[in-house]
Amino acid sequence: MLSRVPSERMALGLYAGLVLASFVATVALDLGAAHLTLLLVPCLCAPLAYPRRVYLTMIGMAPVLVFAAEVVHRSMEDRRHAERSTRESHERFGKLFHASPIPMVLTGIDDGRVLDVNESFVEASGVPREEVVGKTSRETRIFGFQIDPEEIVDTLSRSGTLRNLDFHYRRRDGEERNALLSGSTVEIEGRACAVWQSVDITERARLEEQLRQAQKMEAIGRLAGGIAHDFNNLLMAIEGYADLLGERLDPGHPGHDELDEIAKASERAAALTRQLLAFSRRQVMRPIEIDLADVVAEMEPMLRRLIGEDVEVVATTDAGGVWVRADRGQLEQVILNLAVNARDAMPEGGQIEIGACVVELESAHRLLQGELPAGRYSALWLADTGRGMDPETRERIFEPFFTTKEIGRGTGLGLSTVFGIVEQSGGAVDVESEPAKGTKVTVYLPNRDAPRG
User: Fold this and answer.
1) Which residues constitute the domain of residue 66?
2) CATH code at 131?
3) CATH number, domain at 397?
4) 342-371 pLDDT per residue, tens
5) How big, in percent rounded to 5, are the helix, strand and coil portions of the chain?
6) Which tops the pLDDT comparison, 233 or 50?
7) From edge to edge, which strands make up the β-sheet containing 114-117?
8) How far apart, in Å, are the Cα atoms of 36 and each of 27, 318, 407, 449?
9) How many contiguous H segments (helices) and E segments (strands) does the chain have?
10) What are the tens digits of pLDDT across the range 35-50?
11) How many other CB atoms are found less than 10 A from the CB of residue 117?
12) What average pLDDT is seen over the chain?
């Protein structure tokens, strides 16, 4: 007759199987030590069912199994928490990346290929996302750096961050833009990546260049004004002594011819000083209410004689009057200088069109130098069909003594004088020109109402 108490070997086998099944179930279901304890309780609550040594073994192993189950449970909990945190972090990063108003690019550090770009980048560059993702900066041909892109990535890899690197990029429409590039490293799904963000500084760079140009023109103007005053004083002494010497000589003395040449040279030098003073805005003005349309109409016959027969002069003005407050003589000087400059740009003949009109600017208008605020202006413009200018030449045309003419053909003060007169009159000058497409110069002056009576 079989004993009702299992043998030790059978009891240990049964117990080991039960414990193993309980432990596996606890780990698989991630129930923790408390649940394993509940599974083991039935085994531990029937001491008479097992031999004493087996029961003592069960009692000794139970805490170890409970502790092991708790360790596994906590390890799995920590892993799930880490995975959940990583997933939530990636989701937050993705939302911030795509919602950022700053253009951003995500690249792999190992190969430099673009993994993703946000909407702000697409809007700033005009390039669709699918044309950038999967390519390197060299392959996209959008970005331009002063140093090699691989060196930039190496620097970022070593330091972890990169701040305010100057670079330029080309929009889809061909426009070149300047920007500051910053980057930082980040790990995404176990891969080392770089997050790049750029801040467009094209407008800031343009304003800084305008400020530098204005400061340069101001410095040149001060220098020119000081030289003109000192030179004018010397001319007065030269002319005075020449007059005194002429009075002492007999009417038929051959020295009168040399004195006449001295007088002519002094007059030419005086005209030069007046141009310098006009550029430096130190010339005395006598402003009155003037209709630019009348000025253009009255000067048209003289311009035809001055320009020559091989250049056609066409004048168009507003019939309602284009009123400004300025010095009439200086305005006539502006027109003459512009006309002569246009004529010299057409050695084989062409057409000059001059006109005056009232313009309404609803928003700020960008000029060659500076910006014209929105408002109502009286515009005087002169256009030619000459050789035109490249951007480099156009940037320098208001500088004193800068000229593209042959030696002896000009002083380089014509447009400088125009610039000084217009600035002193409270206006601004704009220049539009392209090589082989002619040039148009527009003078903007504050518009005035027509005088009553």
Assistant:
1) 8-96
2) 3.30.450.20
3) 3.30.565.10
4) 998 898 889 999 999 999 988 888 887 777
5) 50, 20, 25
6) 233
7) 114-117, 104-108, 191-200, 176-188, 161-170, 143-145
8) 9, 99, 103, 97
9) 12, 15
10) 545 445 545 444 444 4
11) 25
12) 77
